[in-house]
C-alpha cells in the first residue's frame, strides 16, 4: 500500500471509502515504537530509516489506526457549532502517527518488498479499509463537514480554504455519505474486499517479475551493448549464476534486450515473459481478480446512482465525463495506428533487404525499429547512450531546477540523514538567492529484488504552513540496472526523458506553496502535466552542451548527432502513442462494459481487434499486470490522463518556444512556478492553466509534436 501524503484526511479524497456510524475510540497507549515516533534531527526532522524493522509494523499500525479514529471522533463529537477551523482544519491534523507509519511501510512495499511484507499487506489492507469506512461513515462528522460546506456557499472564505472545503465535502459525498444505512454497510464491505484484491493483484505481478528471469550464455550475447552485458553479468552473479547473464522481467532490462539482441527466439521468450505477467494461468494469474474488481466497482457506484465507474470517477476531474476523455483518445487513435502501418512497412522492408525471411512480430518491433532509425536518420541509439550518463543527467536536472525554480541542490555527506538502502543518496534543496531551506531530495536509482518496476516519485513529507511552516521531503525512484564496479550508468534517450519526468514530480512537491496539507493533493488528469513538461528541458541547448558528454572522453555530444535526434523526434511515435492509447482505451472501455461474467482476456482481445489494434505491437500495460488500474484506484479509468496532460504539455511548451528567452525565459518561468507548480490543488487546474497561458489548451500542439495531421476545424 503506497500512501504519498502524511495527513490521513487525504485518504478521503484519493481512496474509495465506505460509510456508517462509528463507536468512540479510547486513545491508544503510549509506545516507543520507532515507526510512530516524531521525526527528529536536522531539516525539520527526517524519517528514521535506520531504525526500520518489520517487527514494529503490527503494533505501529494498530496503535496509529486507533489514535486516528480517536482524532476523528473528537472532531465529530465537538459540542461547539461546526466551523471551518474546528472541523475542516482540525481534520488536517488527524492521524499524524498513521502518516509516519505509512511512510515507512510505503518504502517496504515499493522498494524493499519480501514475502513478509506481502503477508503484512494482505493482513492490513482490509483493516485500513475498515478504518477508512469508520471515518467516512461517521454521520456526525459528515454533518459537520456538510454544515461548513453549506455555510461557505453563503459566505465564501479565501480561495484555498474554499477549495479545501469543497474537496473535503466531495470526498465524503462522492463516496456515499448520503446513503441509507443498509447501503453504507454494503459499500463498506465492498471496499474491504477490494482492498484485499488490490494487494493480491500487485503481489501477483511482483511474483512474476521476480521469478521469470532469462539467463543466457556467452554464445547468446550477439548485438547487445557492452554496458548492458556487464550489468547483466553482475545481475546474474548476484542471483548465484556466475558466468551467465540475467535478463530480468522488468522494462529496464526487457526494452534494451529487445532493441539490440540478434537472437530472435530469445527476444520472443523475453517479450513473452514480460507481457504475460499476471497472465500465466497459475495461482498468480490476475484475470479472475480483475473480473471481481470490475464487478465490485460497478456495484459500488450503482449504490450512488451512477451507471458505471468512469461516470463516478471523472466527475471532479478535468475531463468531467468519460465521453470527453474518449473524445480526446479517439481523435488521436486513427493517426497513431496509421503511423504504425507506415513504421511496420519500413521495418518489413529492412528485414526483407537483410534476407531475414521473417514477418514482423511484436518481439521484432524494437529491433527493426532501431535498424530503421539507423537507415532513415543514421541514428544509433547505442551511440546516443554513450553521452547519457546518469550522474550527468542528474546534474542537468539540478541546473534546470536552478534556472526555473531558483533552487540549489547540495549533496549531503553519507550518514548525515538515515537512508533505507545503501543505493540511496540525499541532497538538500535551498533557494539560490536567500539560502532558505526548501527540503530534501532522496534518490534511489537502481533495480533490485523486492523493488517494484518502473519509476516514480513520492513525498515523505509535504509543504504546509497552517500550523507552522513544514518543509518537503521528496524522493525519486528508478530501476536502472546497477553497473559493474567502475562502470558508468548509461541510459537511453527515453529513459533520460523519464528521469526528467519523475524529477518534475519531485519539483512539484518541492515548489508547493500552500497552507493546508490536503492542498498538496492533485487532480489525476492534471498531475502528470507538470512532469511531462519538464521532459522538454532535456533537449535544450544548454543541457546538451554542458551535460551530455561522452562517459569516457568527456567530449560534448556532437552537434550532428543532436541534429539527428531532433530530426528523428517524431520517429516511432506510432508505436509509442498506440501502445499507450491501447492501455488507456481498454481501461475506459472495460469499466464501461457490463462486468457480469466478463472474460477479461477475451474482452481485451476482442476490444483491441474492434479498435483495429495493429498485430505487431501490444498494449503498454496488458490488463493482467495493469497495476496503475487494478492494484489500487489512483489511475482507474484515469490512464487517459497522461494524454490529457500531454495536450497541456505541448501547448505550454509552445509558450516557452515563443518567448524571447526560449525555455529559460524568466517571465514565463515565473508564471510556470506561480500558477502551475506552487498552487498544487489549492486552485482549480483549468483556472490555473488559463492564468498561465491566457486561454485553454488546444490539441493542435500535441498533434504537431507527434508529427500527426492537425485536425481540421
From TrEMBL:
InterPro entries: M3A_DCP (IPR034005), MetalloPept_cat_dom_sf (IPR024079), Neurolysin/TOP_dom2 (IPR024077), Neurolysin/TOP_N (IPR024080), Pept_M3A_M3B (IPR045090), Pept_M3A_M3B_dom (IPR001567). Its cofactor is Zn(2+). SUPFAM superfamilies: Metalloproteases ('zincins'), catalytic domain (SSF55486). Gene3D superfamilies: Collagenase (Catalytic Domain), Endopeptidase. Chain P, domain 1, Neurolysin, domain 3. Residues 1-24 form the signal peptide. Keywords: Hydrolase, Metal-binding, Metalloprotease, Protease, Signal, Zinc. Binds 1 zinc ion. Residues 257-706 form the Peptidase M3A/M3B catalytic domain. CDD domains: M3A_DCP (cd06456). It holds the Pfam family Peptidase_M3. Belongs to the peptidase M3 family. This is M3 family metallopeptidase. It comes from Marinicella sediminis. The lineage of its organism: Bacteria, Pseudomonadati, Pseudomonadota, Gammaproteobacteria, Lysobacterales.
Amino acid at each position: 500500500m503506497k500512501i504519498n501524503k502524511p495527513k490521513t484526511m487525504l485518504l478521503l479524497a484519493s481512496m474509495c471509502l465506505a460509510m456508517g456510524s462509528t463507536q468512540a475510540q479510547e486513545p491508544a497507549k503510549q509506545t516507543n515504537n520507532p515507526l510512530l515516533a516524531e521525526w527528529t534531527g536536522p531539516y525539520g526532522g527526517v524519517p528514521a530509516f535506520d531504525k526500520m524493522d518489520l517487527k514494529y509494523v503490527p503494533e505501529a499500525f494498530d496503535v496509529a489506526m486507533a489514535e486516528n479514529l480517536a482524532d476523528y471522533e473528537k472532531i465529530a463529537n465537538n459540542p461547539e457549532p461546526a466551523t471551518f477551523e474546528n472541523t475542516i482544519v482540525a481534520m488536517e491534523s488527524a492521524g499524524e502517527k498513521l502518516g509516519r507509519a505509512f511512510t515507512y511501510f510505503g518504502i517496504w512495499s515499493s522498494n524493499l518488498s519480501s514475502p513478509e511484507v506481502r503477508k503484512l499487506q494482505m493482513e492490513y489492507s482490509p483493516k485500513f479499509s475498515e478504518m477508512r469506512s469508520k471515518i467516512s461513515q461517521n454521520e456526525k462528522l459528515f454533518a459537520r463537514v456538510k454544515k461548513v460546506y453549506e455555510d461557505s456557499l453563503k459566505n465564501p472564505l479565501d480561495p484555498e480554504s474554499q477549495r479545501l472545503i469543497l474537496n473535503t465535502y466531495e470526498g465524503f459525498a462522492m463516496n456515499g455519505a448520503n446513503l441509507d444505512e443498509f447501503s453504507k454497510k454494503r459499500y463498506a464491505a465492498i471496499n474491504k474486499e477490494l482492498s484485499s484484491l488490490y494487494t493480491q493483484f500487485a503481489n501477483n505481478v511482483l511474483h512474476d517479475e521476480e521469478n521469470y528471469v532469462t539467463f543466457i550464455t556467452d554464445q547468446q550475447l550477439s548485438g547487445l551493448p557492452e554496458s548492458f552485458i556487464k550489468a547483466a553479468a553482475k545481475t546474474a552473479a548476484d542471483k548465484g549464476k556466475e558466468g551467465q547473464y540475467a535478463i530480468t522481467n522488468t522494462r529496464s532490462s526487457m526494452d534494451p534486450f529487445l532493441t539490440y539482441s540478434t537472437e530472435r527466439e530469445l527476444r520472443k521468450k523475453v517479450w513473452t515473459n514480460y507481457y504475460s505477467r499476471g497472465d500465466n494461468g497459475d495461482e498468480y494469474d490476475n484475470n479472475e481478480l480483475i473480473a471481481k474488481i470490475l464487478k465490485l466497482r460497478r456495484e459500488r457506484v450503482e449504490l450512488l446512482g451512477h451507471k458505471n465507474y468512469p461516470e463516478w470517477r471523472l466527475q471532479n476531474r478535468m475531463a468531467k465525463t468519460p465521453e470527453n476523455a474518449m473524445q480526446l483518445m479517439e481523435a488521436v487513435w486513427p493517426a497513431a495506428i496509421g503511423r504504425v502501418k507506415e513504421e511496420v512497412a519500413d521495418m518489413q522492408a529492412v528485414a526483407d533487404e537483410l534476407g531475414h525471411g521473417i514477418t514482423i512480430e511484436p518481439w521484432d518491433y524494437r529491433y527493426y525499429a532501431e535498424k530503421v532509425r539507423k537507415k532513415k536518420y543514421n541514428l544509433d541509439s547505442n551511440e546516443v547512450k554513450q553521452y547519457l550518463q546518469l550522474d550527468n543527467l542528474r546534474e542537468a536536472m539540478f541546473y534546470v531546477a536552478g534556472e526555473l525554480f531558483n533552487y540549489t541542490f547540495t549533496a549531503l555527506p553519507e550518514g548525515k540523514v538515515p537512508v533505507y538502502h545503501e543505493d540511496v543518496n540525499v541532497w538538500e534543496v535551498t533557494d539560490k538567492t536567500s539560502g532558505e531551506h526548501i527540503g530534501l531530495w532522496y534518490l534511489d536509482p537502481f533495480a533490485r529484488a523486492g523493488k517494484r518496476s518502473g519509476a516514480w516519485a513520492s513525498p515523505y513529507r509535504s509543504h504546509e504552513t497552517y500550523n507552522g511552516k513544514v518543509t518537503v521531503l521528496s524522493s525519486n525512484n528508478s530501476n536502472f540496472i546497477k553497473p559493474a564496479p567502475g562502470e558508468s550508468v548509461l541510459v537511453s534517450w527515453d529513459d533520460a526523458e523519464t528521469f526528467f519526468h519523475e524529477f518534475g514530480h519531485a519539483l512539484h512537491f518541492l515548489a508547493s506553496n500552500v497552507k493546508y496539507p490536503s492542498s498538496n493533493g492533485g487532480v489525476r488528469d492534471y498531475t502528470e502535466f507538470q512532469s511531462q513538461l519538464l521532459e522538454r528541458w532535456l533537449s535544450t541547448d544548454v543541457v546538451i552542451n554542458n551535460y551530455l558528454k561522452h562517459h569516457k572522453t568527456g567530449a560534448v555530444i556532437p552537434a550532428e548527432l543532436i541534429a539527428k535526434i531532433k530530426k528523428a523526434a517524431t520517429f516511432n511515435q506510432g508505436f509509442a502513442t498506440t501502445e499507450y492509447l491501447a492501455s488507456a482505451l481498454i481501461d475506459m472501455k472495460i469499466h464501461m462494459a457490463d462486468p457480469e461474467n466478463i472474460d477479461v482476456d477475451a474482452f481485451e482481445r476482442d476490444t483491441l481487434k474492434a479498435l483495429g489494434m495493429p498485430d505487431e505491437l501490444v498494449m503498454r500495460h496488458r490488463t493482467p499486470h495493469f497495476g496503475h488500474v487494478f492494484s489500487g484506484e489512483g489511475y482507474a479509468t484515469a490512464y487517459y490522463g497522461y494524454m490529457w496532460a500531454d495536450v497541456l504539455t505541448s501547448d505550454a511548451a509552445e509558450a516557452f518556444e515563443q518567448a524571447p528567452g526560449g525555455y529559460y525565459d524568466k517571465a514565463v518561468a515565473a508564471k510556470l512556478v506561480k500558477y502551475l507548480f506552487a498552487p498544487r490543488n489549492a486552485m482549480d487546474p483549468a483556472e490555473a492553466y488559463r492564468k498561465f497561458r491566457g486561454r485553454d489548451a488546444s490539441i493542435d500542439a500535441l498533434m504537431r509534436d507527434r508529427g500527426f495531421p492537425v485536425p481540421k476545424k
